[in-house]
Specification:
The complex is a heterodimer of chains A (261) and B (285). Chain A is an alpha/beta fold. In chain A, 36% of the residues lie in helices and 23% in strands. Chain A has two domains: 1-69 and 160-170 and 191-251, Rossmann fold; 78-158, no CATH class. Chain A has helices at 44-52, 69-74, 95-101, 115-127, 143-157, 173-188, 200-206, 223-226, 229-236, 243-250; strands at residues 4-15, 18-29, 33-37, 59-64, 78-81, 161-165, 192-196, 209-213, 217-222. In chain A, the strands form two sheets. In chain A, strands 5-6-7-3-8-9 form a six-stranded mixed beta sheet, with helices on both faces. The longest helix of chain A is centred in the C-terminal third of the chain and has 16 residues, at 173-188. Chain A starts with a strand and ends in an 11-residue tail after the last helix. By secondary structure, chain B is mostly helical. Chain B has a single domain (3-279), classed as Orthogonal Bundle (ABC transporter involved in vitamin B12 uptake, BtuC). Helix content of chain B is 81%, strand content 0%. Chain B has helices at residues 3-8, 14-40, 43-52, 54-63, 67-88, 93-114, 121-126, 134-153, 155-163, 165-170, 175-197, 202-205, 208-216, 220-245, 249-267, 273-284. In chain B, helix 3 runs parallel beside helix 6 (93-114), helix 8 (134-153) packs antiparallel against helix 11 (175-197) and helix 14 (220-245) crosses helix 15 (249-267). The chains are: A alpha/beta (261), B mainly alpha (285). The A-B interface holds A 52-54, 70, 73-76, 78-80, 82, 86-88, 91-94, 97, 101-102, 104-105, 109-111, 137, 139, 153, 157, 260-261 and B 39, 153, 156-157, 159-160, 162-173, 214, 217-220, 222-223.
Amino acid sequence: MNAISIDVKNVTVAYHGKVALHSASLQLKAGTICGLVGMNGAGKSTLFKAIMGFVKPVTGQILINGLPIHQIQKKCLVAYVPQSEEVDWNFPVSVHDVVMMGRYGYMNLLRIPRSPDKQAVRESLERVEMWQMRDRQIGELSGGQKKRTFFARALAQQGMVLLLDEPFAGVDIKTEKMMINLLIALRQAGHTILISTHDLASITTFCDQVVLINRSILAYGDTSEVFTEENLARTFGGSVGDFSSAKNRLTPVNQEEQSWT
Amino acid sequence: MDLVQWFAAPLQHEFMVKAILVSALVGLVCSALSCYMTLKGWALMGDAVSHAVMPGVVIAYILNIPLAVGAFVFGVGSVIAIGFIKSKTRVKEDTVIGLVFTGFFALGLVLVSKVKSSIDLTHILFGNVLGISDSDIMQTIIISVITLVTLAILRKDLILFCFDSTHARSIGINIVFLYYVLLSLLSLTAVAGLQTVGIILVVAMLVTPGATAYLLSDRFDHMILIAMASGVFSSVMGTYISYHIDGSTGGCIVVLQTLLFVIAMIFAPKHGLLVRSRKQLNESV
């Protein structure tokens, strides 16, 4: 239960010779919810990409549950919930179609769903209260429903590691509460959850650990220890009076996250 | 002339029967692929590849090998060239696409003009389905079977690739493979389309039916069926009309496709202009 789930060892990532993440090390135990906090361009997306195996580190190594990246992908171990901006909402797919995509890794070449797949999709949709909406085209949903659809896809994938990119941006209170409760349930089931967010206020309420990042990992550990004014000031490159003012400065637009094609 | 006669008369000529069947098949295949092109946002890529196959077609003709082979090499080669230039220079992608495909196309023109043979430039540029040879028909059938079978087998993976390649990658699906599959099919169908409507208009076959269907449906399966129906309809009717008015076959086919798009754009039940403006009126009241 408490084995190391995400093991990032001394990882440096560079794009076109520019270092985006410098010598990052991080160890998260199974059954942890960890918040990833940093400014735009601080390397949050880069760390996600490295954990998903999309960028090859210049130095260092990443192991998930003790396995190297290519095995992780084959076993569908890491599930990713994208930011809403990354999704083409006009695409002709239904809510059910999207959640079923979470199961493709378990299916044969033709991706024909079998009963465990159908059951996982149904259960996931029911957990986020979207089963009734399953036949809707995804563009017809509200912001919260859209988020819950992609969250359900990650649930259906049954990965042991969950990466969520700005999960609470533009969602209603009901959805936020539901997602936090589900995250806590997943933690109890031994999943490891890494959340990138600007919402400093909510982090303290449910994250066990926090990673502060600004081109390199500045601090990580238990939320109560790491979330100090001094650390936050270092993360955001200035003095931070309190969390809410930090939050205000940070909420506007994400330009760092480029589309991943 | 009555309607039965209108449809029956051209069928007395063997070349018309062949032309109608080949156009229908090409319409079907290109339309199926067009759904992926429009959803992936590859219209410009389709334009580029269909022009870039030109030198390949001419060289294949000279070497007396199947045109599809030459087209395939140059179609895929052009995209590799685009990717290479984009990654190695600061020039933006649309500029790179523009300069690579015109460069390839121009090379094709030079080759055609210097090769003393029976290749007719206008046939390559504007198609010649009324005079299609049996070996070309065979080639079209082979391309069509390859394309339709590939699309059928990889349907769900390709949809996921178009929709969310990040997720596809994260569950271990090889998106580089899918990218080249789609690209290869594009090069192959460009050759098939080339014989029907010509190199210049083939991009219409690879984009318009998909765009029309996109306005008419919210499900991929419906979209691809609507696209194929509109593609086959335009091809068959376009060939008939060109016979009766003695006009360009490729032109007639593409004009019909465009008309279908305009009709869909205005009258589509959910995404049409009429419904949209009515919705806006209701909201403002």
